[in-house]
What does this fold into?
Amino acid sequence: MFITNYIKEVWGAVKSLAKGMKLTGYYFTHHKEIITQEYPDNRAELVLPERFRGEVVMKHDEHNEHACTGCTACELACPNGTIKIITKFDISPEGKKKKALDTFIYHLELCTMCNMCIEACPTDAIKMAQNFEHSVYDRRQLTKKLNRPGSKIREGVE
Amino acid sequence: MPSFENITNAIHTWLTTHLSAGWAFFIELVLVGVAAIALFAALGLVLVLMERRVAAWMQIRLGPNRVGPKGMLQSLADTIKLIMKEGLTPEGADKFLFNVAPYVVMIAAMLLLAPIGFARNLQIWDLNIGVLYISAISSISVIGILMAGWASNNKYSLMGAMRSGAQIVSYELSAGLSVLAIVVLTGSLRISDIVQSQETGWWIFKGHLPAIIAFVIFIIAVTAETNRAPFDLAEAESELTAGFHTEYSGMKFALFFLAEYINIFIVCAIGATLFFGGWMPFHIGHWDGFNHVMDYIPSSVWFFGKTFGLIFLIMWFRWTFPRLRVDQLLNLEWKYLLPISMVNLVLVTLVAIKQWHF
It folds into this structure.
C-alpha cells in the first residue's frame, strides 16, 4: 500500500533522527565524556592512548642487551627509507662468523609512524614510543642511532 | 517591580511633557533604533558563543575556554578581529551590488524585529497583519543572498545563492502553512491577539495533535529558511567553500554572519510567540497557587527563555544531522512536508470550527 509505506517512511525517519539527537543530547549533558586534553597545561599528567605512535625506539634490557639480529627486515619494510641498518660480523668463541647489528640509524624526520617496521620485526626488537615532542633547531639532530653504545644482542635470540 | 512596560511608559511620559509631540515621536524612533542595534550586537555575541559551546559539548570537545573567564569573551575577541580586517571587494565583482548585499540581508532581519512582542506591552509596532508582515519580509533576505552570490562573480557564490533561492522559495510554503494553523485557531493576524489568546494555555497544548504537527513542520521549515545545517546547502563548506559569502571578508562577512544568527533568533521568537505563548507565563488549568508563582516571573524572562530554548533545539539539529543533498532537500519539502502540512491545515480548521480546543 502506498499510503502505509509513506507513513512508515515518515515514522522511520523521525525515529532515526530522534536516535541521533538522543546521543548528542547525552554528550551535551555528560561532560565527563569530553576527550580533549589541554596540552601543554596538563603536560605533567598527560595520558596518551596506548596505541599512540610517537617514534621508533629499540628495547634494551638491564644488561644493555637488545634483540636485534640485524636482519634488515624493518629496513625492507619501511616505505620511505627511514631506517638504515649497518651490520658487522661477530666472531663467536668457536671461531664462527655471525652477522650482527652495528648501527641502527633512524631518520625521524622521514618517518610517518606507519608501524610497518614494528610489524616486520621477527624478534620484537623495536617498538613505538609515546614521546611526541620532537622539535629541534637542527634537522641533523633528528637522525638517531637507536642501539645504545656498547649494547649487544641478547643471548639466545636468533 | 521594574519591568520593560514601566520603563517605556516613563520615557514616553517624560518626553511628551518636555517636548512637542513630533519631537517626542522622533526621539522615540531613534531610541527604538538604538535599542534594536544594541539587541543585535548583544545577540550576535551571545549566540555565537552559545553555538560554539553547544557544538563543542555535543562533539565531546571543550569549546572556547581561553579568552576571559571560561572563554566568555571569545566572541568579543572575534568581533574585534573582524573589525580590524580589510573588507576586500574582488576585481571582477559588481561593486555596487556586492557592497549593498550584506546590508539588504541585515535590514531584512531588522524589519522582522518590528512586530515581535518581547514582553507584556513591549512591542515596537503592533500592526494588525503581524503574521503576514513576518512571512512577507522574511522572503526579502533571499534577495540579499542572491545579490551577494551574483555580484561576487564566483561560481561557488552563484551556486550557493541559487540553491538558497530554491530552498527558501520551497520551504516558505510549509512555513507559511504551519503558521496559518495558529492563525486559524486564533482568528487573528495581530501578534498581540495571538499572545492574548494563549492566556489560558499555549497553543501547542491547547491545539492537540495538529498544533504539534504544525510546530514540527514549522521548526523544520525555519531551519531550512535560515540556511542552517542540515539544510545549509547555500554555504556547504565542504562543497562550495562558503557559498554566497565566499568572497566576503571583514565586517561585510560579519554582517552576513550576524544576520544568520539574528534570523535564527527571530524565527525562534516567532515560533515561541505562535506555539508557546510568547511572553505568557506557563499556566495549568485551575492550579491557582502554581499560576501565581508563574506570574511572578517577569514576562521578558518567559519570552527570552522560550526563544533560547527553541534556539538550542535548532543548534541541536545542526550538530546532530548530516547535510541533505539538493534532491533530498526538495523531496523532503514537496513530497513530505507540503502534503502533511496541507492535511494538517484541514485538521486544524476542523478543530477550530468544532471548538475542540480548550
Remarks:
- Chain B touches chain A through 14 residues (CB under 8 Å).
